[in-house]
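ugh ok fine here u go
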Amino acid sequence: MSKLLRKLEDYRLENKISQSKLAEMLGVTFVTVNRWFNKKFEPNQIQRHHIKKLIKSES
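structure:
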């Protein structure tokens, strides 16, 4: 898992956010988020931008 996805997973767990809610927050499907965390896919450039923005906005 990439460093960014580890940060996203930490953020999700610390804030008690489900994968479904996280997907909604990022504008992707639950399946997409689930595949990221199961190491089947990596976020594309636009998705990485939104992940960074989400993590930073809550810091």
